[in-house]
Amino acid sequence: MIGERLKRARAASGLSMADLGSKAGVSATMIQKYERGNSMPSSSVLIAISKALGVRTEYFFRPNVVQLSGVEYRKKASTPKKILNKLTADVLDQAERWFELRNLWPEFPMPEFDAPDNLPEIRTLEEIEDVALAVRQSWRLGIDAIGDLIGLLESHGILVITTDLEHADKIDGLQASVEGIPVVVVSTAWPGCRQRFTLAHELGHLILHDLLPSDMDEEKACNRFAGAFLFPRDSVLVSLGNERHGLNWKELDLLKHEFGVSMSAIMYRGKDLGILSDRVHQRLSIEFSKNGWRSNEPGEPYPREHTLLFEQLVYRGAGEGILSDSKAAELLKMSSYDFRKSKMMAS
């Protein structure tokens, strides 16, 4: 148990065995023995290791060891393995705390994910528009903008994990499952539009995976789903009209803040729906590139989204006597003193 957790925590920290050994006052060989389960660190060494890795000593004795299955990274080709290891370790730590909380709760107040039934058949990319609309109708969303996408996915049984690790921009998304529960990971450093498109794209994988014809590119299909889910066809037609010969940045900025999708994604929606011709879309894309707007769109960025559900459930569990203050503090990675103080400030 301790060996596996030590390997994960060291991967998350980016420390080599030699670096960790130096900080903890032992040799790299001893760190290797600890990780392989051939030796057990003394209490003083374990405390030193905990400080070096930035974890509480309780971390090493956490009863649940979860495994990510079906891991799918959408990453850049140049992404170093070290960054992927750190990200995976961070996700595992958060997932373990989630499942420990879940197992302590008599009836955990989060539903199981279940894709809507009787979705339309898909033969072409265009028909994905109807699937996205059917999911919206099943979830009673209408065609209006979705204000809190993370909250929406969580309310339908998808575990959303946010990571604040450096270099998370090296990936575009991560989807996996833990004990059959779908997990989607986004970075807290991404702009809100990028977070939302990634979340909708990964939802597309969950919805479309078994519906697509064998010759259809699943990534392209999920991009189409993401655009259609966030900015539905009828809303696009109302906002842009049936045919356009140009778009200005201010109009795009207003729509971006209404629907939470990037200007580039709005232009793609116009192209997908035939509102913009290929020639007009190409001209607008060239203009964006010349102005440097592909990486930094003009105007205020769309606000980032955050997940609050885990923290809310920990405080709720402590308030209802399901969790002790010490267990709640451990799950939130804070001291018992700080947890009790935070409860007093809130009361």
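Next protein, fold it too.
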Amino acid sequence: MIPVSLGIPMYKSEAFLPGLFETLRNLDPLPAEIVLLDDASPDASHELATAFAANAPLPVSVLRNETNQGIACGYNRLAATAQERWVHILDADDHPVEFDFYARVLRHLSDDVSAVVTSVQSNSLALRAGNAVLGALVPKHPPEWWPLLGSFATRSGVIYRRDALLAHPFPDPAYPGSDVVHLLTLRERSRITFDHHAHVFYNVHQGASSSQARDYSLYLSALQRFGTAARLAHKADLAVRRLGQIMDRS
């Protein structure tokens, strides 16, 4: 097993869990543990998670919030609960693409990086086209200003060093783009690694946040504390991503 705790927040996730759990059963090698967190879902997410835990090929814990706490709180609770040195927080509607996903990232899990960012596959036409044209240009250790989340990766494809994540938790409450700001904060303190050969599938569907019109004013404000190159690059990336979201909704 790989020294990674896989944390999965769930909210109204029952439609995606059977497929996700089947994918997880087929991983080789497996992460060291899985922690499932039901954020007071009104559907059968908790029951499906409990059934999976009872027959899983690795240790699985199932947590439950009595009231809905929001996605950032869920991410931070999963990080605090994890037992391994590395934490992969995977949204329940996404999934690893390769059966040997964790073997591909293992060589990058070193003390001199705070996170390993894997590439993205998606049913989004805009994401597929952008990655086909530009994905190969991303360097293994991108400079701080280089945009990653949104165009080349999804937050579900980031494996965090747990101590770095605990020292710098996700902004709570979350806002559109807060995951990008969070990763930029980590990149100020330690380098990250980008892996072209491991992929997480980002599922754009009617309920996905990327399918909705979103207010990025807090994100644009938060970018002001970073350097000029990072601000300009991420603003340009946001403009491209918003165009892609319009294409996906049309």
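About the second fold: The longest helix spans residues 228-249.
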